[in-house]
Amino acid sequence: MPAEYWAQLLDTLHQRPRRRSLRGARAQGPARLLASVWPRQHLHRNERLSPLLQQALLRQSWQLRQANHHLVAAILAAQLTTDVVRKARDQMAYMLHHDPLTHLPNRILLMERLVQAIAMARRQNSCMAVLFIDLDRFKVINDSLGHGMGDLLLQAVAQRLQAQLRTSDTASRQGGDEFIILLSEISNERGVAELAEKLCHSIAQPYHLNGAIAHIGCTIGISLFPADGDDPELLIRNADVAMYHGKQRGRNRWYFYRTEMNLRAVERQRTEADLHRALRLGEFELYYQPRVDLASLRIAGAEALLRWHCPTRGMMAPERFIPVAEECGLIVPIGQWVLRQVCFQLARWQQEGLQLPTLSINISTLEFRTESFTPALRMALADSGVDAGRIELEITEGVLMNDARASGTLLNELKTIGVKIAIDDFGTGYSSLSYLHRFPIDVLKIDQSFIRDIDQASDSGAIVNAVIAMGHSLGQRVVAEGIEQPYQLAFLRQQQCHEGQGFLFSKPLNAIEFARYYRAEGQP
Ligand SMILES: Nc1nc2c(ncn2[C@@H]2O[C@H](COP(=O)(O)O[C@H]3[C@@H](O)[C@H](n4cnc5c(=O)[nH]c(N)nc54)O[C@@H]3COP(=O)(O)O)[C@@H](O)[C@H]2O)c(=O)[nH]1
Questions:
Q1: Which residues form the EAL domain (predicted)?
Q2: Among 42, 124, 225, 345, which residue has the least CB neighbours within 10 Å?
C-alpha cells in the first residue's frame, strides 16, 4: 500500500488533520510514517505493523469503503432528486408560458418576447409588427359541432399559423379564438400585408375534424412598431382596434391600424355611456312609417322606428346606436321600452278614434332570446289593454335560423299570445324553406335592396316575383320595403304584392305627424 493511502486512512481514523506532522515522515515509507503518528507498541521491531493493528486498519478500511458507497448512493439520490426537481421546474415554467391546448406561447411569453423585440428594434432602428387574429364565427362551430371539435379546430388553426412563420416570429394564443403574432423583423408594410393575406387564405381552407368538415375565416388587425405604438400593450391594443374595426367591415380580411379607428372606438364607448343616460332620462322617441295596402292604396298599418334625441349629438338614427346597444346588452331594456311605448300609443290612438290595424316592432336577436321577452310582451299588452292581434314582431331570418328549434318553440308561444310574426329583410339572410313552412309566420317583408333594383328583366325582379308567389301559396302577406319610385310601385301592384312601405308614401313620422297623415288620408 502506498504511504499516501495509509496516511489518509489514519487521518480518517483519528478524524483530525495530521498533515503537518506527516509531511516529513511521508518520504520515509509506511513504517516510519506510522511510527510518527501511532503509539510505539503497535509496531514490531522491524517496523512492520502488528497483526492486531493490521486487522483494525483493514476493518476500518472496509467500513470506510462502505461509508463511501453510502456517500455515492446519497450523491446519486441527490442527483436524481435534482433531476426530478429540475424537470418539474421546467414543466412549470413551460405551463406558465404556454397555452395548454395549442402549445403556443401564451400572453406572458408573448409579452416577454415583445419587450425583447421592441428593445432590439430600437437598437437596430428597425420595424416590427403585431397581428391580432380573431376567428370569424367560431362560436357557430363550437355550438353546432360541440366544444371537442372546437378544440380540435383551434389546434389545427395554431398549426397553420405556425407553418407560415419564421423561427424568429412568435405565434401565441390569448385564449378563446384569439391569436397574436409577433413579427420581429419586417422590411416593409407590403411584406406584412402579404403574410396576413397568406394567413387568411390558410385559415380559410376546409378542416377535416374526426370525419366532419368545418370552414372558418379570420379577421386580422395589424399594428406596427414604431408608427402605431412603442410599448407592448399599446401595440396589442391598436392591433385589436384594427381587428375590431375589420369585423364590422368585412370578415376574412386584414386591416392595418389607423388613428381614426381609435377615435371610432372612443366614440363607441361614449355612445354606450350616453345610452344609459338616454334610457334613464327618456331621450328616445318612436317614429312611425305607414304601410300601405297596394290594392286599395289605404294605410294598412305602420312600422315603429326608434329615434334618439341625444342632447350633445342631435337626432340619432338607429343605425348609429342599435349595434352598440346590441353589443352591450342595453337593447333588452330599450326593446322593452319600445314594446310598452307601441302598445300604449296604439291604445291612445284608439281612444282618439284612430283605428290603426297593425303596428310592427323590430326585435333584435338578443331581445328575442332573452327569457324576459315574452313576460314583458304579455305585461305591455295587459297594461295597455291592446288587442295582441294588432301587434306584429319583425324578426330577421338570421335570428330565426340561429337555433331553429328554440325559435320554433318561442314562435309558437308568441302565437298563443296572439301577436303576428313578420320576417324582416327577407332574402338577405339564409332561410331553410322547410322551416319557413313550419314556422307560424304571417308576413314576409322583402328587403329594400331588391326593390331598389326591381326591374322586369333583373335578378331582383325575379326574386321579388318568387317571394310574392311563395307568400301567396303559403298564405303569408308579402310587404315590399323601400318603395321610392312610381315604377317600383307599378311593378309590385302588377305582381299582386300585398303591402308596401317607403318614401314614395311617407318617411317615418313622429306620433303627432303620423296621426295627421293618417287622418289626411281619410282613414278613421
Ligand atoms: N331592435 C330595434 N331595431 C330598430 C328599431 N328601430 C329601428 N331599428 C333598426 O334600425 C334600422 C334602420 O331604421 P331606420 O333608420 O329608421 O330606417 C328605416 C326606414 O327609415 C328606412 N326606409 C323606409 N323606407 C325607405 C325608403 O323608401 N328608402 C330608404 N332608403 N329607406 C327607407 O328603412 C328602415 C326600415 O327598415 P326595416 O326595419 O327593414 O323595415 C331598421 O331597419 C331596424 O333594423 C327598434 O325599435 N328596435
A1: 268-522
A2: 124
| Distance of CA 254 from the midpoint of ligand 1 (Å) | 30
Residue 346 is assigned to a structural domain of this protein: yes
**Cis ω for the linkage preceding 290 (within 30 of 0):** no
Ligand 1 center to 32 CA (angstroms): 116
489 CB less than 6 Å from ligand 1? no
488 CA distance to ligand 1 middle (Å)? 19
The neighbour count for residue 419, using CB atoms within 10 Å, is 21
More confident residue, 141 or 413: 413
Query: Residue 31 pLDDT more than 90?
Result: no
HEC readout, 180-206: EEEEEEECCHHHHHHHHHHHHHHHHCC
Please state the pTM of the whole predicted model. 0.63
Q: What is the DSSP string of 89-113?
A: HHHHHHHHHB-TTT--B-HHHHHHH
Asked if residue 283 and residue 252 are part of one domain, the reply reads: no
Which DSSP category does 27 fall into? T
Are residues 442 and 392 in contact, defined by beta-carbon separation less than 8 angstroms?
A: yes
362 lines ligand 1 (CB under 6 A): yes
**Confidence (pLDDT) at 211:** 86
Using the mean position of ligand 1's atoms as its centre, give its distance from the Cα of residue 235 in Å.
38
Question: Radius of gyration over alpha carbons of the chain, in Å?
Answer: 41
Nearest ligand 1 atom to alpha carbon 335: 47
282 and 409 belong to one structural domain: yes
Mutation choice for ligand 1 from 283, 285, 305, CB with most ligand atoms inside 8 A: 305
Give domain status of residue 101, yes or no.
no
Kindly report the three-state secondary structure assignment for every residue of 437-448: HHCCCCEEEECH
- For ligand 1, the distance from its centroid to the CA atom of residue 362, given in whole angstroms, is 8
Domain annotation covers residue 89: no
Residues 405 and 481 in one domain: yes
HSE-up (13 A, CA, CB side) for residue 466: 10
Ligand 1: does its nearest atom lie under 6 Å from the Cβ of 407? no
Is residue 502 lining ligand 1, measured as CB closer than 6 Å? yes
> What tens digit of pLDDT does each residue of 72-129 get?
777 777 776 777 878 888 888 899 999 999 999 999 999 999 999 999 999 999 999 9
With b for 16 or more beta-carbon neighbours within 10 A and e for fewer, the 122-153 pattern comes to eeeeebbbbbbbbbbbbeebbeebeeebbebb
Same-domain pairing of 240 and 279: no
Both 277 and 368 in one domain: the answer is yes
**Residue 317 and residue 190 in one domain:** no
**Residue 305 alpha carbon to ligand 1 centre in Å:** 6
- How far CA 159 is from CA of 102, 194, 207, 505, in Å, comes to 8, 19, 12, 57
Residue nearest to atom 21 of ligand 1 (CA): 482
Segments forming the whole domain that contains residue 16: 3-80
Confirm whether 264 is domain-assigned: no
